[in-house]
Amino acid sequence: MTRLTMWAGASSFIVGFILLGVFNVGHWLSGPRSVPGHGDLIVALGGGGIERLETALKLYEAGYAKRILLTGLENIHERNDRYDQHWRSQFLLTRGVPPEALLFDHTSANSYEEANSVSEVMGIQQWHTSLVISDPPHIRRLNMVWGPACARHGLECRLIATEPATWNPSRWWREKLWAKFVGMELLKLTYYTVVYEFPELFHIVG
Predict the structure, then answer these.
(1) How far apart are CA 172 and CA 182, in angstroms?
(2) Distance between alpha carbon 24 and the CA centroid of its chain, in Å?
(3) How deeply is 1 buried, as exposed, middle or buried, from its count of CB atoms within 10 A (0-12, 13-18, 19+)?
(4) Which of these, 55, 70, 64, 60, lies nearest to 103 by C-alpha position?
(5) pLDDT per residue over 43-58, tens digit each?
(6) For the structural domain made of 6-205, what CATH number should be given?
């Protein structure tokens, strides 16, 4: 075998490995997800489109939980807005969700803070199971932060993915919205691993 043939073979393997990763990263980011089950609290995370609210409403109407908590309202006081006037609240209220069924997290600024804040509230209220809703490529990072947060408080967390019509885990790069989403998730996963996962691992080892 000539050196050129060896280099060509090695190059083909590397390119194939990279392409395999590109093709599968959408599926990897989308798991591990859970099937809906009865719980104490539905958590519709902030950001994204209308799909998170639609999924929360669907679960609520199906009787999976009697409460819906909305996150991503951290700047509401700066705008002098009221919780019930926020467009996300209005979406649910106008579709029959009573005001007393809505809860709000206005302090958390990211997924890590949301997981710990909501877990603390659930512990205080003696609630056990949450159904946390977000878009498919967000699930991997949610599992990284919600799993440990719930475990610390003895809680159960079910990660429920929305079903956006334009999301295709095998062709995520074809849609500008999802191409940007996946890119940001990969960056955030790297950041979360360094900031949250490594210190936790060192703490356990130590």
Answers:
(1) 8
(2) 19
(3) exposed
(4) 70
(5) 999 888 899 999 999 9
(6) 3.40.50
